[in-house]
């Protein structure tokens, strides 16, 4: 995801580039990738054709940058300081609650903007798939680190596998989001996350 | 999903229509919807332009029929007689094992063909979203029925909620499939399904 760094841009240039990416991500969330043309993005961002070409030479370059930008943006949203480090049962429940609330506020439209990019692009080409995998890996690492800390601290039993639990938490989140997005109701996301967290809790040292 | 029934076709016509749908579903799984043009489908199915138009007047009509066809085909694959009715812990584990094996055989390419359609089309228009929701509902009903039978039989405790557990099982499946497809490895799907089934098992009457 090298495109995310563009050191040769001025700070104004970086701001323009970020604005274009934000606009592109929003349009894609609303219309899908196939329904979003580079010229729609250019118009919505209010930049000229030559400016657009300066930052993104074609749709493929733009999509690649949107993947990296969306991975970082999703991660930032979900790791706001008030959510903590996902390294306690309480933090996991807060994270699940805030994930559910965010979708409810948006009436379940758009789902996970990163997962949605993945669903649309995963079979397009090997490089894009690798970029998407790198985005998911950032998430997995966040869960793994938190779960490992919980096991090291003795909150989780020794047999708890942070790797396996990280997959289960991210899987529940992605599947729950797609189902809630499609069915336009809260239950699939809420119940998927609750089940995954209940499973983590079942591995607590002091499990009653 | 009315398009799935076409009573006015002859048996030969129905076979041709089904062949076109199978070819379209395969191409879409490989290239995505945006990368699949109606003329590619026509050529791959070996039908003439006028035949194609006879069955599917445009890409939209074709995609709508592919959704219904894929929902039924996915359901048929997962409810083969040897898998039983998903109404016991054993049947749920067999279903999870066979889901994992099928993905492994395909080297995790394509993911869930129905979930993948959902990911690509969910924000396209309200009617398409309703068709996708109907497909997921067929799945949910299958899980709910099995879980309800388990509760009625006394395998699951009274407080077990078949509705919530059905969402958790389908969520784990969809999320696990998307992650395994993107990361091209078995763990996300296997661990997501294991966690969801372990949660169902934690509600067993004779939970040790």
Automatic annotation (TrEMBL), chains A, B:
Listed Gene3D superfamilies: Tetracycline Repressor, domain 2 (1.10.357.10)
Keyword DNA-binding: yes
Domain HTH tetR-type: 14-74
Keyword Transcription regulation listed: yes
PROSITE patterns, per the entry: HTH_TETR_2 (PS50977)
SUPFAM superfamilies assigned to the protein according to its UniProt record, in alphabetical order: Homeodomain-like (SSF46689), Tetracyclin repressor-like, C-terminal domain (SSF48498)
Species of the source: Nonomuraea marmarensis
Pfam family, one: TetR_N
Entry-linked PANTHER family: HTH-TYPE TRANSCRIPTIONAL REGULATOR YJDC, TRANSCRIPTIONAL REGULATORY PROTEIN
Keywords assigned by UniProt, alphabetized: DNA-binding, Transcription, Transcription regulation
Protein name per the record: TetR/AcrR family transcriptional regulator
Binding region for DNA: 37-56
């Amino acid at each position: 995801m090298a495109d995310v760094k563009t050191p040769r841009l001025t700070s104004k240039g970086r701001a323009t580039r970020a604005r274009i990416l934000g606009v592109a991500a929003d349009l894609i969330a609303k219309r899908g990738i196939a329904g979003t043309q580079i010229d729609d993005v250019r118009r919505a961002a209010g930049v000229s054709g030559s400016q657009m070409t300066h930052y993104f030479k074609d749709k493929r370059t733009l999509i690649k940058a949107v993947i990296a930008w969306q991975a970082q943006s999703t991660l930032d949203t979900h790791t706001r300081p008030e959510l903590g480090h996902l390294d306690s049962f309480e933090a996991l429940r807060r994270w699940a609650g805030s994930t559910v609330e965010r979708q409810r506020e948006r009436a379940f439209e758009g789902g996970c903007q990163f997962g949605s990019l993945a669903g649309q692009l995963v079979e397009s080409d090997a490089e894009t798939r690798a970029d998407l995998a790198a985005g998911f890996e950032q998430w997995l690492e966040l869960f793994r680190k938190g779960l490992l800390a919980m096991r090291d601290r003795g909150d989780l039993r020794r047999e708890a596998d942070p790797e396996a639990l990280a997959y289960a938490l991210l899987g529940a989140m992605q599947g729950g989001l797609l189902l809630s997005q499609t069915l336009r109701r809260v239950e699939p996301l809420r119940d998927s996350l609750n089940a995954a967290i209940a499973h983590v809790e079942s591995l607590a040292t002091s499990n009653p």
